[in-house]
Design brief:
Blueprint (H helix, E strand, L loop, with lengths): L4 H10 L6 E6 L2 E6 L2 E7 L2 E5 L18 E4 L2 E4 L2 E3 L8 H21 L7 H8 L1
Antiparallel strand pairs: 1-2, 2-3, 3-4, 4-7, 5-6
């Protein structure tokens, strides 16, 4: 379920110190982006932040909740997004610290992705 407009606006306000935060529907959920990089996902008005090996220890508290997941061919696939503890919404500085750690993880993930393939016509124009 995508984020409600009220919840989306609340998140944009809370995370404004990060930069330009946008939310958009994706696969029945809502992707959260900061300056074009996906740092979180919202489903059923619950926020999940991107986690990787470098911020996993800082997010240890979030392990108390199941990670964001989906079912595929009868198996549950865990995604690299962990639920943000509700208490952080009462601790704005700590919420921003977690969001910055999630954004750093999102940048690391984006840097590891191969560059998108170009069409032959685009390659030929670049050579000219």
């Amino acid at each position: 379920m995508v984020a409600s407009e009220t919840y989306a606006e609340f998140l944009r306000e809370q995370l404004a110190p990060l930069g330009r935060v946008t939310l958009r529907p994706m696969f029945g959920k809502t992707g959260m982006f900061c300056d074009g990089v996906m740092l979180g996902v919202v489903t059923e008005n619950t926020l999940y932040f991107r986690v990787d090996d470098e911020n996993r220890e800082a997010f240890r508290e979030a392990e108390a909740f199941p990670p964001l997941n989906y079912a595929k061919k009868g198996q549950i696939i865990d995604l690299a997004f962990w639920r943000v503890p509700e208490r952080l919404f009462d601790e704005p500085d700590e919420l921003i610290a977690w969001a910055r750690a999630a954004l750093a993880a999102a940048h690391r993930v984006a840097a590891k992705r191969p560059a998108p393939k170009q069409h032959k016509a685009s390659k030929q124009r670049q050579r000219s």
